[in-house]
Amino acid sequence: MAQANNIKPEKKQNSRILAIIPARAGSKRLPGKNSKLLCSKPLIQWTIEAAKQSTHLTDILVSTDSEEIASIAQKCELAVPFMRPDAYAGDKSTAIDVIEHVVGQLRQEHKHYDYILWLQPTSPLRTSDDIDGAIESLMARNADAVVSVCECEHSPLWSNTLDADQSMESFLEPFVKNNPRSQALPEFFRLNGAIYIARTERLLEEKSFFLERNIFAYKMAKESSVDIDSALDFKLAELLLAERQSK
Fold first, then answer.
1. pLDDT by residue (tens digit) across 66-84?
2. Nearest-CA neighbor of 209 among 221, 191, 222, 227?
3. Which of 115, 158, 173, 190 has its CA 20 to 30 A from that of 20?
4. CB 34 within 8 A of CB 113
């Protein structure tokens, strides 16, 4: 479940929001991960189901170059109106490349959206409550962008680079060295990759979800923030989902 963000929408949200679920065929670290079975479901299906259960989305679209992934989406009763061209499916293709392609295709059909919601399939523990909570936070703040974060597992103040000789003489700042208790250190948050939402025109103009102004964080629980990038991440997500399903 999403952590409370202490923001309530002041009025009913009626903006047009398009959720894009990006899922290309290629993956170097974990080949075929988007269609790999996770607790008996293809990885992407967890995100599709969470998006479909959201109460605030106008439309949901899977952007893929894979016929297999398109077939999974269609079995989940989610249309794939067009395939992603190879030019936008390579290792160097960016999220903005994909968004510009999707928005361009839809505008040809006279479909326009106020906001773009980016839902990566690699966050299978993100729920519809998380999605709706982020959207409601966006609307209540009249924000132009909201990005999900979670608390850091370990304070980055305990980290530093190492020289070739691996000396640790200046590894910690004096403030940290003199406060060995982690509870005495500031609370840090990290991006968790689960939710990115931005006003469409600002997103296309600045070519980033990290807008220069009027952007806010949406806090999520750490146990909902697994971002699958490796076989170890996949195993962790499997354990957490199995535990969630058993409750």
1. 999 999 999 999 989 999 9
2. 191
3. 190
4. no
